[in-house]
């Protein structure tokens, strides 16, 4: 039952304003409120699945009753509070690091602490702050942790628009931010949705994707996407894509880096998003020589742990094949042959062949 103090529209409007202010206090860049209507996305999503553009992510084909009907995720849901948080540290290089081929490039969201833990904690704190002021409001917090169309929810909340690179864009901050949601039973006033997608005729993200992963605007073939290949994909990386991966060993930021809206990016002030273990400037060889114990220790509480040690070495072997040819690189690859798994060994052999080709 709605608390009596919130029986009037004016009180609900005041509460919505307070929630947005509290969100800033908890480190979020913005909060918007929406009553999502997600059924309109079902047809396009199912067509994407039918074309196997989700690659090996079979879980995306599950729980359509939850994905398009948020009230099934949290009974009684009347509104979703959509929030975003900046994650790019000011000190971290992006384009220049990609050009330094003996250095590893890790997607900038993954350099520090796992964002799931940080943002979920802040969402819960915000939800409890609301509860402290209005009583039990029936809520549930999500951070990329359930079948939710996060970007579509945020777009409907007026936070920005979904760009041709399938990321949420806003003139306030480009796309260098992460999303989270609070499902609530409170009938809060909603914000105006984004009415226009401001990509215009720009196709930089489509034409400059290293692996040509975009089939068309707003359609990504995940099976070609470097983020998918280096994080989610199990087994050998398709040989025709290896040379295109460059020094990217976990994730890829290219479709953000080439987007004109990136110039409006805001830097994070969160200490937890600062790079750990010099991951923003580490040499490929140094990371390749981590044993499994070191990998597990250095990726504790990090999103990088998701890929696993074997795939970590697989990814770096490919990057070393794309690195400048020198005795140290070749020697490192040769020394790792006998002690590596069959999967990693396959990619080491490929990497050595690349250096032989360069020497011809």
TrEMBL record:
EC number(s) recorded for this UniProt protein: 1.17.99.6
MF (Gene Ontology): 4 iron, 4 sulfur cluster binding; cobalamin binding; epoxyqueuosine reductase activity; metal ion binding
Domain 4Fe-4S ferredoxin-type: residue ranges: 186-219
Compartment annotation: Cytoplasm
Cofactor binding mode and count: Binds 2 [4Fe-4S] clusters per monomer.
Co-factor requirement: [4Fe-4S] cluster; cob(II)alamin
Catalytic residues (UniProt): 144
Ligand binding (tRNA): 234
Function: Catalyzes the conversion of epoxyqueuosine (oQ) to queuosine (Q), which is a hypermodified base found in the wobble positions of tRNA(Asp), tRNA(Asn), tRNA(His) and tRNA(Tyr).
Subunit structure and binding partners: Monomer.
This protein's name: Epoxyqueuosine reductase
Organism from which the protein derives: Marinomonas transparens
Designated gene of the protein: queG
């Amino acid at each position: 039952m709605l608390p009596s103090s919130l029986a009037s529209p004016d009180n609900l409007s005041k509460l919505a304003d307070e929630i947005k202010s509290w969100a800033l206090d908890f480190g979020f860049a913005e909060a918007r409120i929406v009553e999502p209507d997600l059924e309109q996305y079902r047809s396009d999503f199912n067509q994407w699945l039918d074309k196997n553009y989700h690659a090996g992510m079979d879980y995306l084909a599950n729980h359509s009753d939850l994905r398009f009907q948020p009230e099934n995720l949290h009974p009684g849901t009347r509104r979703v509070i959509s929030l975003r948080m900046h994650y790019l540290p000011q000190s971290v290089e992006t384009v220049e690091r990609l050009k330094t081929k003996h250095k590893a490039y890790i997607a900038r969201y993954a350099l520090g602490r796992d964002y799931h833990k940080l943002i979920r904690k802040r969402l819960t704190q915000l939800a409890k702050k609301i509860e402290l002021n209005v009583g039990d409001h029936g809520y549930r917090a999500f951070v990329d942790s359930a079948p939710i169309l996060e970007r579509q929810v945020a777009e409907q909340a007026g936070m920005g628009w979904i760009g041709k690179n399938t990321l949420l864009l806003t003139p306030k901050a480009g796309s260098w931010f992460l999303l989270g949601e609070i499902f609530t039973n409170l009938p809060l006033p909603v914000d105006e949705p984004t009415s226009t997608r401001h990509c215009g005729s720009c196709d930089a993200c489509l034409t400059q994707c290293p692996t040509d992963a975009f089939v068309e605007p707003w359609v990504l073939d995940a099976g070609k996407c470097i983020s998918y290949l280096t994080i989610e994909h199990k087994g050998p990386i398709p040989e025709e894509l290896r040379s295109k991966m460059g020094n990217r060993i976990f994730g890829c930021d290219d479709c953000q880096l080439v987007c004109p809206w990136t110039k409006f990016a805001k830097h994070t002030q969160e200490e937890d998003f600062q790079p750990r273990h010099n991951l923003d400037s580490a040499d490929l060889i140094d990371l390749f020589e981590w044993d499994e114990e070191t990998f597990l220790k250095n990726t504790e509480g990090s999103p990088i742990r998701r890929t696993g040690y074997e795939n970590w070495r697989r990814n770096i072997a490919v990057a070393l094949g794309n690195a400048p040819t020198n005795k140290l690189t070749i020697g490192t690859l040769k020394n790792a042959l006998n002690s590596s798994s069959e999967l990693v060994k396959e990619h080491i052999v490929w990497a050595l062949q690349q250096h032989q080709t360069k020497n011809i």
